[in-house]
Amino acid sequence: MWVCRALCRARAPAQLGQRLLPESCRRRPAAASFSASAEPFRVRALVYGHHGDPAKVVDLMDDPLCSSPLGNYGLLPQLPAVGGNEGVGQVIAVGSSVTGVKPGDWVIPANPGLGTWRTEAVFGEEELITVPSDIPLQSAATLGVNPCTAYRVLMDFERLRPGDSVIQNASNSAVGQAVIQIAAALGLRTINVLRDRPDLQKLTDRLKNLGADHVVTEEELRKPEMRSFFKDVPQPRLALNCVGGKSATELLRHLAPGGTMVTYGGMAKQPVIASVSQLIFKDLKLRGFWLSQWKKDHSPDQFKELILTLCALIRRGQLTAPACSEVPLQDYPCALEASMQPFVSSKQILTM
């Protein structure tokens, strides 16, 4: 995550120059512009020169402050590249032709691949979206991907009404936590599936505090006793899958006739398998969702509208940031190691 402050300077007409500064430097006066012939300003960034184990390929480096080619999730970025798709920064100054942002604005990336694991950067204003500065900093830093995915998969595939049920796996993920809260705000019931783990009761309690109606394990979902469970709970019309394999098969088995399973991830790296009878006799629908594609199919204004809708939920206390651990940038190896551990339910946020 990218939690830092930003200084915007003119690099060229109609371009926003954004420098993300440490908290201790945010009050420093900003010059209106700087010469292309001046000594380049050096920034700290987490850079990888090839793909592999993050602990082995990511290094903290000093780079010149300049615009850099952007990568794109789903496509391989040009290497070497700066990591990070999410985060929030604060604009300190802007170029004379910039109209979309102003000093003091909080901004998040408009698209993936921006490279947010760095203290400072130069971006065009079209690459950023302003967010209200009256929401919690962690909420702003984690706003642009997971809550957006959660909202869209709940809204775009089935016409759900208050009282309807939704079932999902990996319910402790950042998307899963957002689904629980947004569904509760919409009056929907959630059936949340988890892998069995040592701290299951603690995690179950945390998800129920977020608004989860039911929490079951993968093993419990496979048991015949689940038939009696669905006598008291409406069969879900929508299933949300980010695991695949046997987990996805179980979600399909419990879907109501005519229901839809939306796959937005594949953590198990196993295929989604549906039986012929489920497709013919239950008329189940299998769909996929990728936020990057949704953004390609919709205008920037529609994405901004989505962001503001989520911010309204945050202000009302109906949507909070996922469990997070803040880690100073220089301690990035600890963040990388923690993120690779099994049964991790918190995001690692790099602070600068």
From TrEMBL:
Its transmembrane ranges are none
Task: Tell me where it mainly resides.
Answer: mitochondrion
Query: Which EC numbers characterise this protein's activity in its record?
Result: 1.3.1.104
Q: Name one Pfam family in it.
A: ADH_N
Q: Which UniProt keywords apply?
A: Fatty acid biosynthesis, Fatty acid metabolism, Lipid biosynthesis, Lipid metabolism, Mitochondrion, NADP, Oxidoreductase, Transit peptide
- CDD domains reported in the protein's UniProt record: ETR
Could you mention a single GO BP entry for this protein? fatty acid biosynthetic process
Classification via SMART domains? PKS_ER
**Which domain of life, per UniProt?**
Eukaryota
The Enoyl reductase (ER) domain sits at: 42-350
The cellular location(s) given in this protein's UniProt record come to:
Mitochondrion
Coiled-coil stretches, from where to where?
none
In terms of InterPro entries, this protein maps to:
ADH-like_C, ADH-like_N, ER, GroES-like_sf, Mito_Enoyl-ACP_Reductase, NAD(P)-bd_dom_sf
Cellular component terms (Gene Ontology): mitochondrion
Q: Which GO terms describe its molecular function?
A: enoyl-[acyl-carrier-protein] reductase (NADPH) activity
Q: Which family does it belong to?
A: Belongs to the zinc-containing alcohol dehydrogenase family. Quinone oxidoreductase subfamily.
Supply the name of the protein. Answer: Enoyl-[acyl-carrier-protein] reductase, mitochondrial
Q: Which species is this UniProt entry from? A: Muntiacus reevesi
